[in-house]
């Protein structure tokens, strides 16, 4: 499956990878609620494509998240 990461803020492509199998834990998807998964991950199994909305480095910096990380803030970023 080909996974395309796109910035949810600016719309720019972040990266794309090809994987044999999507491992939810490996990609951090296991930490998402069902609603979060529905909002940020779109899968086209017939085409073998997954679209993932994340944040690019520029938008992370612009929004002030670069220092927050996951230090007890409750935020986990897939990017």
UniProtKB/TrEMBL annotation:
Concerning InterPro entries, the annotation shows:
Fin
Official protein name in the record: DUF2757 domain-containing protein
**What is one GO biological process annotated to this record?**
regulation of gene expression
Organism of provenance: Propionispora vibrioides
């Amino acid at each position: 499956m080909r996974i395309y990461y796109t910035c949810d803020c600016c719309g720019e492509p972040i990266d794309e990878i090809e994987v044999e199998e999507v491992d939810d834990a490996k990609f951090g998807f296991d930490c998402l609620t069902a609603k979060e998964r529905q909002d940020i991950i779109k899968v086209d199994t017939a085409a073998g494509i997954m679209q993932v909305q994340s944040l690019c480095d520029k938008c992370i910096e612009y929004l002030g998240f670069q220092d927050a990380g996951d230090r007890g803030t409750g935020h986990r970023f897939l990017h």
